[in-house]
Amino acid sequence: MKKLLFVFSLAFICCTSLYAQDNSYNLVPFPAQFNGGDGQFVVNGQTKIIVTAKDALLKPIAQSLASALKTASKLNLVVAPAAPPTATNTIFIRLNKALGLGNEGYKLVVGKERVILESATPQGAFYGLQTILQLLPTAVFSPMPVENVAWTMPVCQIQDKPRFVHRGLMLDVARHFMPASFVKKYIDLLALHKMNVLHWHLTDDQGWRIEIKKYPKLTQVGSKRKETLVGHYSENYPQKYDGKEYGGFYTQAEIKDIVKYAQSKYVTIIPEIELPGHATAALAAYPELGCEPSKNYQVGTKWGVMYDVFCPTEKTFTFLQDVLTEVMALFPSKYVHIGGDECPKDAWKKSTFCQELIKKQGLKDEHELQSYFIKRIEKFVNSKGKSIIGWDEILEGGVAPNATVMSWRGTSGGIEAAKQKHNVIMTPTTYYYLDYYQGNPAKEPLAIGGYLPIEKVYGYDPADGFDEASKKYILGVQGNLWTEYVPTPEQVEYMTFPRATAIAESAWMPSGVKNFEDFAMRLKEHLKRLDYLKVNYSKRILDIRA
Ligand code: TNX
């Protein structure tokens, strides 16, 4: 069996390379199984898209295809409820529960006379639609009509499904606020890459960005900072501030609207509320939640890890439960991310309350106090039928029983958590930190540090370092964009793409079949799609391969 798989993989690699040399096969992420053929399906003014009444859930997908073609080609494709199976010049889109490709998979057969897209769910059909759009000329992504294009798709057969269920990007809107319209664009770009999770980092030391009705000061006070550090926060750099007030937050109405939008693109938004650390913005609003309630806490104006954190008092737990209750009501996601990272223990060490609590609970030290904190929060979240995700520090002092661990400090946290039979999401700094430099730092805009060119991002296999028995705990992967040095949407796009395209391929393609050369060739055409979508991606890959 192993030998067979090996031969299959080799054949796969050869085929994918071959196909990619032909511009018509620039699929990203590349499908799990692909067979090319001869000839083309020609789309013209008479082409019909068929969705029967029983599959009415697929209508929005048919309409999206028709509307993309209408915008770019002016062709007016009709979406109709029936046609004989032998009808020509027809695109059939239908549900088929017996496909065997899971909830997100689809089968696509492009013939000269007709196209058939089948999936077990609308989500599968949505990914099939992304593939159809990528098989069509790149101009189908144009927001305006494009002349002199032959609107064809190459004959091919595809059976496709993702490797991982969690295929995400994390966007930090706490350090720099991103407008709601841009968050929607980011969701579009996730969907284009068949990614399905937006991890929304909504709170941190430098800003609280989600309206909580019960605690209005969180946004009245916590969403604004007096000024922002310019340049690098390391002690070795001059510490200069811009002297300008900075702020922003999302109302609950805006959040509902964004969640609904994401649902239409099959993107789940996982909200993150940071605790017990990265909490200074909340403490500035409600100082009674800190270990020194009389302290004049201020929303952070520089980056890094801050000394002040939530104090594990009953007042704090009530506050956090109230906040999480409102958050869980806004986000249908089964998961809530509760942070858990970089919580310095100094404030707890100095606090008599914390020291007594440690004794009372029979805990060994402040690390076990952090574990106590997270476990209590987990219990509450579980009682509401949801689950927590935490950064890998939640392993400290004993991981909460049902937690999913997001492995960021390298891969070891994830590997360890999986050994303890916890689900994990791999997002290591070494491969997936999108705030790191992607080219020569001397030629790049200021970034947090590190060096992470797309070749390295692409080369990572998320199962590296896991033993056979642990691999099944890998839920998936995620690129993280922290925004200390990313003040605008344009800069978010620059840092995210095309590295996120490489992550999307690792999230989707079967293990062992990726090939960077092949990817780079397909990427060249894919970047033209991003041009049409007005994405300010980094052009480095084009320069180095020109
Ligand atoms: C570490 S990754 C952090 C963030 C910073 C990031 C910068 C993680 C869980 N915490 O607070 O923004 O480094 O790369």
Number of strands: 23
Largest sheet: 8 strands, parallel, barrel
* Number of self-contained structural domains: 2
For the biggest β-sheet, the strand order reads: 8-9-16-17-18-19-20-23
Helix content: 25-40%
Q: What is the CA–CA distance across the termini?
A: 41 Å
What is the radius of gyration computed over CA atoms, rounded to a whole number of angstroms? 25 Å
What is the CATH homologous superfamily assignment of the largest domain?
Glycosidases
CATH architecture of the largest domain, please? Alpha-Beta Barrel
Shape, per Cα inertia axes? elongated
Put simply, the count of helices is: 18
Report the mean per-residue pLDDT as an integer. 94
The CATH topology of the largest domain turns out to be: TIM Barrel
* CATH class (first level) name of the largest domain: Alpha Beta
> What ranges have pLDDT less than 50 throughout 5 or more consecutive residues?
1-23
Strand portion, in percent?
15-25%
Structural class: alpha/beta
Write the layout of secondary structure elements.
Blueprint: H1 2-20, E1 33-42, E2 48-50, H2 59-73, E3 78-80, E4 90-95, E5 106-110, E6 114-119, H3 122-135, E7 152-160, E8 166-172, H4 180-192, E9 197-201, E10 203-204, E11 207-208, H5 217-220, E12 224-225, E13 229-230, E14 240-241, E15 246-247, H6 252-264, E16 268-275, H7 280-285, H8 314-330, E17 335-339, H9 346-350, H10 352-360, H11 366-383, E18 387-391, E19 404-407, H12 412-419, E20 424-426, H13 429-432, E21 436-437, E22 449-451, H14 454-459, E23 474-481, H15 489-496, H16 499-508, H17 516-532, H18 540-544
Parallel strand pairs: 2-3, 2-4, 4-6, 8-9, 8-23, 9-16, 16-17, 17-18, 18-19, 19-20, 20-23, 21-22
Antiparallel strand pairs: 1-7, 5-6, 5-7, 10-11, 12-15, 13-14
This protein binds ligand TNX.
